[in-house]
Amino acid sequence: MKNRHWNRRDIIAASLAVGIAPSIALSADEIHMISKPIPGSGESLPVIGLGTYNVFDVESTPAQIEIRRQIVELLASSGGNLLDTSPMYNRSEKVIGDVIASGMDREKLFLATKVWTDGQSAGAKQMQRSAELMQTDVIDLMQVHNLRDTASHMETIRMWQDSDRIRYSGLTHYTAGAHAALGREMERFKPDFIQINYSLGEPEAENRLLPLASDLGIAVLINRPFQSGRLFRAVSGKQVPAWASEFAASWAQFFLKFIISHPAVTAVIPATSKTHHMIDNLGAGSGILPDTAMRKRMSDFFSSI
Ligand SMILES: NC(=O)c1ccc[n+]([C@@H]2O[C@H](COP(=O)([O-])OP(=O)(O)OC[C@H]3O[C@@H](n4cnc5c(N)ncnc54)[C@H](OP(=O)(O)O)[C@@H]3O)[C@@H](O)[C@H]2O)c1
Question: Is 116:87 a contact under the CB 8 Å cutoff?
Answer without folding.
Answer: yes
